Amino acid sequence: MAERKDAEGNGMVLSVENLKVVYRGVILALDGVSLEVREGEAVALLGPNGAGKSSLVRAVAGLLPKFEGRVLDGHVRLFDQEATHLDPARITGLGLTAVLEGRPLFRYLTPVENLVAAGHRLSPRELKEGMEEVFARFPRLYERRHEQAGYLSGGEQQMLLLGMALLTRPKVLVVDEPSLGLAPKLVEEVMRTLDTLRREKNLSLLLVEQNARAALSIVDRVYVLERGRVVFEGDAKAAQEDQDVMEFYLGKEEVGFRQAKRYRRRKRWV
What we know:
Strand content: 25-35%
Structural class: alpha/beta
CATH superfamily of the largest domain: P-loop containing nucleotide triphosphate hydrolases
Mean pLDDT: 84
Helix content: 25-40%
Order of helices and strands: EEEHEEHEHHHHEHEHEEHHH
Oligomer: single chain
Number of strands: 10
Radius of gyration: 19 Å
Largest sheet: 6 strands, mixed
Strand order of the largest sheet: 6-7-8-3-9-10
């Protein structure tokens, strides 16, 4: 099957079509979500807690069964290959790597040991070269390479996770809430790192965030998710100029309870 391309000739690397996800057979988490990520593109998926962002990450990474979830309807395609029901290893093999929220590291292992585990499919030479690249990119990790990962700072743990992801040789990188719990300066550093990695390695990036300001600083296009549905889609500039998005998701204006109620009534997607 020929790879689909957009008007600019960029191939579609990740396509989610009308996806419905349920947990335990009854809890509807995603209700007809569609989104696309093109080759070399950075896309943000924004939304509040409970909007369904992590459910979408689990769906595209093949992780739903681990959380008692399943796809009820719709499709996930990677490089035009059906991937809706593939297991995580097959999806990684196709070129998608997900960095999950909560910084799921081997906390009692060192950064070196974590990287070795992430790169277990590489040859010894490839692993050595990959680890050298990771430590060159993240010097602080090299300084603390023999300490337990659980004692690293939040920012250092996030860098380690990104380094582990790089050792899987991804073409599509999905990063879930990388700014969670980080100080503003560290958030800026993480975002700069993601932007640099995307550009230097020609990665396609799906950045899943509540911190809309940080995400909008590095992405090309934006989807906003609320209550399991996409309620806004557009480029980053359009999102920054959209009054509803700016007020409701970026906190541009402070609103009291009565104002918030009026705002919710006029919001076009509720």
